[in-house]
Design goal:
It is a single chain. By secondary structure, this protein is α/β, with parallel strands linked by helices. The protein has a single domain (about 20-175), classed as Alpha/beta knot (3-Layer(aba) Sandwich), CATH 3.40.1280. It is built from six helices and seven strands; from the N terminus they run αβαβαβαββββαα. Strands 3-2-1-6-4-7-5 form a seven-stranded parallel sheet. Helix 1 (about 5-20) crosses helix 6 and helix 2 (about 35-45) packs parallel to helix 5 (about 155-170). The chain is globular, with a radius of gyration of 18 Å. Bound molecules: S-adenosylmethionine. S-adenosylmethionine (SAM) binds near residues 143, 154 and 157.
């Protein structure tokens, strides 16, 4: 019994059937709240389950709901304290670390096989990713630039790489069968349904 309407529940189930638990994004001190929220929205669209971030300021980075349009409720947003330690642990768990990095040594982002368990790291708007994480990378990737400006906005760059990952994963059938176990799906459904009911009640109370 989930207490949400059948149609709403079906939507949640359909989304979970396509969530990719082995494709994640790591934001390494993305500071602009609009960029932060836009990245979350793209993660939801591509089916990313876990979105990780490090944020160096004392205050929490606000979610801009006008930009996420609620997408932040459907991904798991997890803060990490130390980029190096976090990525090292993920690497030990079997994830390849793909770092978006503006350098002559980086390879074209399309050359990577994103159907493997992957974490895509993106960096701060001014300084890019932390230097120390570069040694952990399996691939440093660049999106070719042919204009006067040397870089893309970080949320745009994330979307470009994520949609390449989505294309490859779709081709390999990774969206055609659930990547999450039934147990995992049930657990998330329970959580989402409860949160959904609480939000709906709050909205009603505020009317
Ligand atoms: C505005 S850029 C940072 C620019 C910074 N001066 C640097 O050299 O890294 C912010 C982030 O967007 C991503 N990015 C932007 N353009 C990119 C590109 N052409 N290729 C790969 N990543 C890119 C990277 O994650 C980068 O850390």
């Amino acid at each position: 019994m989930y207490l949400v309407e059948e149609k709403r529940l079906k939507r949640m189930k359909d989304i979970l059937a396509k969530r990719q638990k082995d494709l994640s994004v790591f934001m390494d001190d993305v500071k602009n709240e609009h960029n932060f929220s836009a990245i979350i929205r793209t993660c939801d669209a591509v089916g990313v389950l876990n979105v990780y971030y490090r944020y160096s300021l004392k205050r929490e980075i606000p979610i801009n709901e006008g930009i996420t349009l609620g997408a932040h409720k459907w991904v798991f947003l997890k803060k990490v304290e130390n980029s190096y330690d976090f990525l090292k642990k993920k690497k030990e768990e079997g994830f390849q670390i793909v770092i978006t990095y503006l350098s002559k040594d980086s390879i074209n982002f399309r050359k990577v096989d994103y159907t493997k368990p992957t974490i895509i790291a993106v960096g701060n708007e001014m300084s890019g990713v932390s230097e120390d994480i570069l040694e952990l990378s399996d691939h440093k990737v660049i999106i070719p630039m042919y204009g006067m400006v040397q870089s893309l906005n970080v949320s745009v760059a994330t979307a470009v790489v994520l949609y390449e990952a989505q294309r490859q994963r779709e081709e390999k059938g990774l969206y055609s069968k659930p990547q999450l176990s039934q147990e995992e799906i049930d657990k998330i459904l329970k959580k989402w349904a409860i949160e959904d009911v609480i939000k709906a009640k709050k909205r009603k109370d505020n009317l």
